[in-house]
Design a protein that fits this description.
Blueprint (H helix, E strand, L loop, with lengths): L8 E2 L12 H11 L4 E5 L6 H15 L4 E5 L8 H8 L8 E6 L7 H12 L3 E7 L9 E4 L18 H5 L2 H13 L10 H10 L4 H10 L5 H10 L1 H6 L8 H9 L2 H10 L8 H8 L6 H11 L4 E2 L7 E2 L2 H11 L6 H26 L2 H10 L1 H7 L7 H11 L1 H5 L4 H14 L6 H14 L6 H14 L2 H17 L3 H14 L10 H15 L16 H17 L3 H18 L2 H17 L3 H10 L12 H9 L2 H13 L2 H4 L4
Parallel strand pairs: 2-5, 2-6, 3-4, 4-5
Antiparallel strand pairs: 1-3, 7-8
Helix pairs in contact: 1-2, 3-4, 6-8, 7-9, 11-15, 12-15, 13-14, 13-16, 16-17, 16-18, 16-19, 19-21, 21-22, 22-23, 22-24, 23-24, 24-25, 24-26, 25-26, 26-27, 27-28, 27-29, 28-29, 29-30, 29-31, 30-31, 30-32
Length: about 650
């Protein structure tokens, strides 16, 4: 038996702990090994390739009586494939054997040549290899080992996590088992389940990282562990300050070729996923040009995480990214600043492209692009970045639709407020308007007053007619929420007079016309043209609000069935875009229609489903006044609670 780490054949390693969440994968691997001469387990560092190989080898030699030989890869990279084959193949002549080659990435380019030589010399040998690279040998069967399945991210982060649902996740099961091994008192409870789930998601479900984190959690709760991990992933997983980083990440970068190490470092500027085009644009410069960067990415792909739902997109494991980022930052005059600047410029262009898509009517595409790139955009909106507060605000304003029309209000406010606080005076009128809109239209209107005043003053000085128009739109919206439709109508008319024909940013003319139609539905129904704006395909979001205005009009004119039709059309768009405010107001009007028909409990359930989604400064829903008269307080509370527990779509079977 050879020494551990040598290339001489060894006994199959003993399993020192349970293998969690891999039973189905091991079964598929065994099926593959029964028909293929060369099977390569690929995947990121720490994902469990060796553990799966051990389990498969032990099942073959123990339960099935197969002849299995285990061999670690050589520590040295020098030597010919023939010489290495001589060493590894000692005693294989004439045997029907499964040879397990663990850690083939350590051989670099020699790995494929060695495996080819082994297969050629000994026809009775089958090979199971583990590697962070494909071996590129004819007939190679690949089995990609991915992270363990994670618990779904909660729709409401503030809601307590369901212990039973979280515990079903293999990643959580592994973490819990290892944490209990480190501290027998550890249990998964309703108090820590959310933090455990978040910790597993932060570690990408990679078993090696989860096991390390479980040990590091001892003496600390999962929430504290998550805080420490977020603050410094390498320090947390390495076990203390002063360490260079996680051993797996260190080994991965050390084994890489020079061009690969350079790309690892540059890839660390990405906060989320990336594709080949992004890598060429951000990382392709200097000693590693765009074409070389893409070619290197393709070689590294098996060692990266794939992005679920997005073919051709990859992510760095957290520990690898943290280690590579630390290396990139060591030379303040080297590649780091250039990569960061190129990353920020790409984010600026991406945000503007998403805004252009929105203006062109491709709003679902705009939303999808912004959400896909949101981890990068968040990084670029940090005022401490290379473009400072001004660059952060430029991106935040381009993404106005994501914050206001697609339901990410609180996040948008946070980005704007942080960047505005860091920006010297005078602060840009566009950013002040957007901050005021998000505060006034979706929160407490009074809190927006200082922003409105500052935005108006700056807009006058800068000659920003569009900002002046949008400020009137904000004032009109606040008046409408406060049940002052005449005042709202005056403000919307002023907004339409001031708005340029083709604004460079912000809501288009159709959206402002929809606001005016909502006000006129209360004050001058005859002035609202039937179907006005509600069939315009150039701005689906504005069309949904125009449909809401038509529903208001039809209800007031005694046509509830037509009002319901308009509302359901609007809700289709509002659901697709994630427009929570639009959903809330449309559902509240549906509740009013239900109450008009005497279906009071149904109306109350609808109101309960959207409770808390409307502006804090808005008047209570009109239907609520009637329900308080028609239902007992107990029945009203029960119906509200039932609605709050029920997904909104289940209450709207027509959609």
């Amino acid at each position: 038996m050879g020494e551990p780490g040598s290339s001489a054949p060894q006994a199959v390693p003993v399993e020192l702990s349970s293998l969690v969440g891999r039973a189905a994968e091991v079964a598929r691997l065994l099926t593959l090994l029964a028909t293929e001469r060369l099977v390569t387990l690929t995947g990121p560092v720490g994902v469990g390739k060796t553990r799966m190989a051990v389990r498969a080898a032990r099942e073959l030699c123990g339960g099935r009586g197969a002849d299995v030989v285990w061999a670690g890869t050589p520590r040295l990279r020098s030597g010919s494939p023939a010489a290495l084959a001589d060493e590894l193949g000692a005693g294989l002549e004439g045997r029907e054997v499964l040879l397990v080659l663990d850690g083939c990435e350590q051989l670099g380019d020699l790995a494929g040549e060695l495996v080819g030589e082994l297969l050629r010399r000994w026809p009775g040998v089958r090979i199971l290899a583990t590697s962070q690279r494909t071996l590129d040998v004819p007939g190679e069967a690949l089995h990609a080992v991915g992270p363990l399945a994670l618990p779904a991210a909660p729709q409401d982060p503030a809601a307590p996590a369901a212990v039973v649902e979280v515990a079903l996740s293999p990643a959580v099961r592994l973490y819990t088992e290892r944490a209990r091994g480190a501290d027998p008192r550890f249990e998964l409870t309703e108090h820590n389940a959310g933090a455990v789930a978040a910790l597993c998601r932060a570690l990408d479900g990679i078993p090696g990282a989860l096991e390390l984190a479980a040990v590091r959690t001892r003496g600390h709760g999962p929430a504290e562990a998550l805080r420490r991990l977020t603050a410094d992933p390498l320090e947390f997983l390495a076990g203390g300050p002063g360490r260079a980083g996680g051993a797996d990440a260190l080994r991965l970068c050390r084994l890489a070729a020079p061009g690969e190490r350079l790309l690892w470092e540059r890839l660390s500027v990405f906060a989320g996923s990336f594709d080949e085009a992004a890598v060429a644009e951000v990382c392709g410069f200097g000693a590693l040009g765009p074409r070389a960067a893409v070619q290197t990415l393709r070689r590294l792909a098996p060692a990266l995480l794939t992005e679920p739902g997005y073919a051709g997109r990859y992510r760095l494991p957290l520990t690898v990214r943290a280690y590579a980022a630390r290396r990139l930052a060591r030379d303040p005059l080297g590649d780091g600043p250039t990569a960061v600047r190129r990353h920020h410029e790409r984010c600026r262009v991406t945000a503007e492209r998403a805004a252009q898509l929105w203006r062109s009517g491709a709003q679902l595409e705009a939303r999808a692009l912004a959400l896909r790139e949101l981890p990068e955009l968040r990084l670029a909106m940090d005022p401490r970045g290379p473009a400072g507060a001004a660059g952060a605000l430029e991106i935040a304003v381009s993404l106005w639709f994501l914050w206001s029309a697609c339901g990410l209000v609180e996040e948008g406010r946070g980005h704007l407020e942080r960047a505005l606080a860091a920006h010297p005076e005078p602060r840009p009128a566009r950013a002040l308007w957007l901050a005021a809109w998000l505060v006034a239209s979706f929160g407490q209107a009074e809190a927006a007053d200082p922003l409105l005043v500052e935005a108006w003053t700056t807009a006058v000085q800068e000659g920003e007619d569009a900002v002046l128009a949008y400020l009137a739109h904000v004032r009109g919206t606040v008046a409408l929420w406060r049940d002052r439709p005449e005042e709202a109508g005056d403000e919307y008319r002023e907004a339409l007079e001031l708005l340029p024909a083709e604004p460079e940013y912000g809501p288009g003319r159709r959206a402002l016309e929809a606001g005016l139609a909502m006000a006129l539905a209360y004050t001058d129904p005859a002035a609202v043209a039937f179907g006005s704006g509600a069939s315009d395909g150039s701005d689906p979001w504005a069309r949904s609000w125009a449909g809401y205005a038509q529903a208001l009009l039809q209800r007031r004119q005694g046509r509830p069935a037509l009002a319901r039709t308009w509302l359901l059309r609007s809700l289709e768009t509002q659901f697709a875009l994630g427009d929570r405010l639009g959903q809330a107001l449309s559902v509240e009007l549906l509740a009013q229609l239900e109450a008009d028909l005497g279906r009071y409990e149904s109306a109350a359930r609808l109101l309960g489903a959207v409770a808390g989604h409307r502006p804090a400064s808005a008047c209570p829903p009109r239907a609520e006044r009637l329900l308080r008269l028609r239902l007992t307080p107990e029945d009203l509370r029960a119906a509200y609670a039932e609605g709050a527990r029920t997904p909104l779509r289940e209450l709207l079977p027509e959609l």
